[in-house]
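Hi R.,

As promised, here are both runs. First protein below:
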Amino acid sequence: MKVGIDIQNYLPHRAPMLMVDLILDIDANFVETEFLIKEDNIFVDNGTFIEAGLIENTAQTCSSIVGKKYFFEEDGTENKDVSVLGFISAIKNLKIHSLPKVDEIIITKATLVSKFVSDDYTLCTMSCQSFIGEKILLECEINLFIQKRISATT
C-alpha cells in the first residue's frame, strides 16, 4: 500500500482534464483515489460536479492501475521514455446515484475484473464505485484500452 501518490506519475492527463488528485492505495488488482472538486473545474455546473466528470474521474482512477505497468519498471523506477494513449472502450451497468458539490472530496475505488496484456497494449475491465463518505455516487464496469507509445525523445 502506498499513500498520497501524485496521480500525474501514472497518467498523461493534466489540467484542466485531470480529475484525480491522489492515489490513496494501489496494487496489481485494486486502486483507490481522492479528488477534491473545485469551483473552476470544467465539469462543474451551478456548483454541482456533473455526470461526465464522475465518469472521467472513474476512468482516470482505473487507468492508473494499468498505467503503472508502462510508467514504472518492476523495481519501481520511473520509465520516462514512455507515454500512453488510453480510452474507454465500454461502460457497463452505469448507475449514478448522486452528484457531488463543489468542495466535496470524491473517493473512487476500482477493482480489476479481467485483463489482457500484450507487448504494446492492455485491455481491461474494472469494477468501480465512487463515494463521498459512505454515500455512493456512482457504480459501473469500465473497459479500458491502454496503448504504449514511444516518446519523441527516443
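And here is the second one, sequence first, then its C-alpha cells:
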Amino acid sequence: MGPVIFWNSIRFVLAVLAQVLICNHIDFLGYINPLVYIYFIFLFPLNANRSTFLIIAFLLGLTVDMFSDTGGAHAFACTVIAYIRPFVLRFAFGVSYEHQSVKLENTATGQRLVYIIILTVIHHFFFFLLEIFNISSILIILRNTAFFSIFTILIIALSITLFSRKNS
C-alpha cells in the first residue's frame, strides 16, 4: 500500500503545481484557462476507499482554491465529480468497470473521451455556477462551461495520448 500512497501523493502535488503555476496563467482568448488538475481525479485508483477518495478530491479542490482565491468553488466541483465518478465509469466503460479492469490509457478512445467529457463538463458547470453565483447569468455560466471544458478536454486528451505513446 505504501507505493500507491506515495505515487498518488506525487500526482496530487504535481496536479496542484501544474494548475497553480502554469494553467492559471494561461489566458487563451483573454479569459480561458484549462483546469487540468481534475486529471488527478480521473486517474485516481478505482479500488480506493470511496470516503477517502471524496476527502482527497475535496482537499485537491480546496488546495487549488487557496492558491486561486475562488472561495471553495473548486472544492465543491471536485467533490461532485468524485461522488458521481462511479456512475460515469459504469456508463462509459460498462463491464470493464464492473470487473475493476479499467486503465484509462488502455481503453478505447471513444470510451475515454465520453468519461473525460462528462466529468469535465459537470465539474466546470458546478465550478462556474458557484464562482458566478447568479442564476440570471446562466448564459455566461454555460458559455464559460463550454469554452473552458473544450480547452481542458483538449489538454487532457493530448496529455493522455503523449504519455501513453511513451509507455508503448
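A quick note on the second one: The chain is about 75% helix and 0% strand. Let me know what you think.

Best,
J.
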